[in-house]
């Protein structure tokens, strides 16, 4: 069986994740009643952020392994999204590890309880919008919504 990782490049997987998570966070109303699919997406976002933090450490240690390469790739994308946030005036901790940890805690809180502080949710939404823009190679902005219905 072909796994998603074998078919889609990492940047496209990150883009799809950022789109899913951004859409969930765009619709945030406390407390949220999340579907299983939404919980899985938030858990994947948490894993991405943890991987980005791991990538920062692996990059600093000049570690060479397949896992370090994947983590460093996540770090590169997350760092660019963070730089965009700072350029847009976001108030972030100075340490990237703290930024990634704080965002991961928001994802964990939302996935487990459906609630998190609104300002943290807004920051996470903005981060994932920026991540989507980085992976698409374009300016960030609201995620487009498509509604399909039958007659």
- Terminal residue distance: 37 Å
Largest sheet: none
Our count of domains comes out at: 1
Strand residues, percent: under 5%
What is the percent of helical residues?
55-70%
- Count every beta strand, where a strand is a DSSP E run of 2 or more residues: 0
Molecular shape: globular
By DSSP (H or I, 4+ residues per run), the number of helices equals 6
Cα-based radius of gyration, to the nearest Å? 15 Å
Mean pLDDT: 86
Low-pLDDT segments: none
H and E order: HHHHHH
User: Structural class, please?
Assistant: mainly alpha
Give a verbal description of the structure.
The chain has 151 residues and is mainly α. The protein is built from 6 helices and no strands. Helix 4 packs across helix 6. The longest helix has 25 residues, at 36-60. The N and C termini lie far apart (37 Å). The model has no long low-confidence stretch (mean pLDDT 86).
């Amino acid at each position: 069986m072909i796994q998603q990782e074998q078919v889609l490049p990492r940047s496209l997987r990150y883009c799809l994740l950022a789109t899913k998570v951004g859409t969930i966070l765009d619709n945030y109303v406390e407390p949220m009643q999340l579907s299983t699919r939404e919980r899985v997406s938030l858990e994947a976002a948490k894993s991405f952020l943890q991987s980005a933090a791991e990538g920062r450490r692996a990059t600093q240690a000049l570690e060479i392994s397949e896992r370090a390469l994947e983590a460093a790739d996540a770090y590169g994308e997350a760092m660019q999204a963070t730089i965009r946030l700072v350029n847009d005036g976001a108030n972030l901790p100075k340490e990237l590890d703290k930024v990634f940890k704080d965002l991961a805690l928001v994802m964990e809180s939302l996935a487990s309880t459906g609630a998190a502080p609104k300002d943290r949710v807004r920051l996470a939404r903005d981060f994932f919008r920026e991540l989507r823009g980085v992976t698409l190679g374009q300016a960030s902005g609201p995620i487009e919504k498509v509604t399909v219905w039958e007659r």
